[in-house]
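[09:14] KT: can someone run the structure on this one? pasting the chain below
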Amino acid sequence: MRIMTLPCDGIGPEIMAATLDVVEAANRRFDLGISFHEEESGFTSLKNHGITLREDVLEGARTAFDGVILGTQSHMDYPPVAEGGRNVSAGFRIGLDLYANVRPARSRPFIANKAPGMDLVIMREATEGFYPDRNMFRGVGEMMPDPDMALSVRKITRHGSMRICREAFKLAMQRKKKLAAIHKANSFLMTDGLFLECFRTVGREFPEVETEELIVDAFAALLVRKPETYDVVVATNFYGDILSDLASELSGSLGLAGSINANAETGLCCAQAQHGSAPDIAGRNIANPTSLILSAAMMLTWLGEQRGETALMDAGQAISDAVDTVLDDPSKRTRDLGGAVNTDTFGSLVAETVRHRAQAA
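[09:31] RB: done, structure tokens below
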């Protein structure tokens, strides 16, 4: 089993190293046969190849690897696309058609949070919507007809809406059989209207799932007021991006939130932390690597479910359990959570917990 790794920018190399320490521990414990291959991306690739994400890297990920672990990127600091500043994350999502961005948010009783009882998953469509760098076949969906006017085009398709809704219903069937669709169809009559039409169409295939349709601003308030109410949430790209960050912060921290981008039809999956590259602390070995570690665990679990391989699912669960075990001890937390543990030490602690559980078993 081959995994491509791309440390990318900012704290990416540090949290990647900690993550690979943990995944390697699970690899040995469950005899997964994983090998890792690192590729350049972000500013390193720009310096060496003139572009932040090479097309041959994407092609390799598509044809020669079982999964991808992507570090953080500083795309706001990249040069224009014409000068090689390609959005790495968007490049993978569009290039590999990774339409399902899966973002869990779970409160832990031993970590301070503002949402007791929260345990939900946001299924975010990731290949279209309000994002101008991925909603056109050629060119981008944002323009300035004159210096004082800026326009942006939103794209919602039946194909994109149907497939993300279907994945959300399938996930709901595995959980509490509750699914909420987030929209603003009272204003975006056609685009969100189409999304809701697809949601209802797919819903007829899953009569066991209890559904709810919520306007996005109302849902944001309800997420704060009664977070324990929700199970699986499905949303278009822009809404899902914002709401998943809100949910993660309410549940404890954006730094504790895993995330994958996946395509159930092709079997491709990319693990990626929810947070950014934090260039202000890059190179100081103080970043919290939990998000990327949990993202890698999610990737292993997802691949195991797609392939029917129990060892991969067990490995993903073992990593997730080990993270909770370490976080439960305040003395083993990173600085953002009130502790004093460094990035590499936290990775070592989680990896050792994975190995220790193996010996105990």
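[09:33] KT: thanks! The mean pLDDT is 96.
[09:34] RB: yep, looked fine to me
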